[in-house]
Fold this sequence. Notes:
By secondary structure, the chain is α/β, with parallel strands linked by helices. The chain contains 10 helices and 10 strands.
Amino acid sequence: xxxxxxxxxxxxxxxxxxxxxxxxxxxxxxxxxxxxxxxxxxxxxxxxxxxxxxxxxxxxxxxxxxxxxxxxxxxxxxxxxxxxxxxxxxxxxxxxxxxxxxxxxxxxxxxxxxxxxxxxxxxxxxxxxxxxxxxxxxxxxxxxxxxxxxxxxxxxxxxxxxxxxxxxxxxxxxxxxxxxxxxxxxxxxxxxxxxxxxxxxxxxxxxxxxxxxxxxxxxxxxxxxxxxxxxxxxxxxxxxxxxxxxxxxxxxxxxxxxxxxxxxxxxxxxxxxxxxxxxxxxxxxxxxxxxxxxxxxxxxxx
Length: 302
């Protein structure tokens, strides 16, 4: 088989041009797995080993693979939007992204794949990509995706609470909210506040306990922090499609207790038949060195 990907581009439903890698299975496959990377410095173009292993494993089962860079790729990235022949250059990347905008990216990818003849869609998300699946399902529950794969879903709100401490966390939350409400959402947050390149709007989106980003509030649940007014894990628990949830045994963002985090998720799907859980031994957050085990698990489940 030939696993060389095609470098392609497509347009999100709000007209951003995004790049992707399409690994097409042979025998005129009509099934494809879309892949959402995490945030930070992430990009599907800098993880060839992972992408190739996933592609080869899926292609052998006649499933194509479509990892693409969404608007949250890299810390800061300029993207182009063309409207009525007028091209704008806009600032995105993790520093400026709002998680709900993933809807535009996913729908654009689906529309592109439809033009390529695909009819059966699966969606996988790594780290923040798993959070995005839950957000997408929340706002578009009747989407055409058949199955979801949530890999290393993250608790950024809780992690920042621990990193900043209570007082600085609430200061960052208040200042980023006020700046965004006053039209300064695109301005960068002081690095004295948060040692990470964030605009006001993206910092608030990321750490707001009642926002869309806060999908997996493990820290709040395990330590009774009382950060949120919304019902915890409600977006995750609302999923009715078949879903595979996978964590690495030594995920460095699970507060030293991956089994406890997974048990919390299981409680929120208790009595439902749509959820499958797995912990890959000795695997970290990104499944480093365990890529084949993860790929085999995903392919067999699909």
